[in-house]
Amino acid sequence: MEKITLHWFVTDPEGPIATHGGGMPVPLPxxxxxPGMRGFIGGVRGRIACQPQRSDINPKTVNGxxxxxxxSDDVRAANCPRCLATPEAKAMLERLGEVTVTxxxxx
Length: 107
Ligand SMILES: [Zn+2]
What we know:
The protein is an alpha+beta fold. The chain has one domain. 22% of the residues lie in helices and 21% in strands. The chain has 2 helices and 8 strands. Strand 6 (60-62) and strand 7 form a beta hairpin. The protein is globular and about 55 Å long. The termini are far apart. It binds zinc ion. Zinc ion (ZN) binds next to helix 1.
């Protein structure tokens, strides 16, 4: 069985994608000093890390087959090799690693 490719959705005010929704607040772990991590779902602009020009991520049905652009704004959830290969993803993973270490040290 083929695995689903989960792309990384990069929150970016200049991004070509505008997600639906009005910014529903969701609980997130505290991420002090990381303003890029927002406690909101939907209603944001961004881009798919490996396809920065892509503006349409809505599901499409072609010849009876529905194709989705599965994505997460959490780089740790993404499994797309091309998204994860971007310097931005590597930098974010490094930063998140530092946050985890800091949180453990703070206990
Ligand atoms: Zn990707």
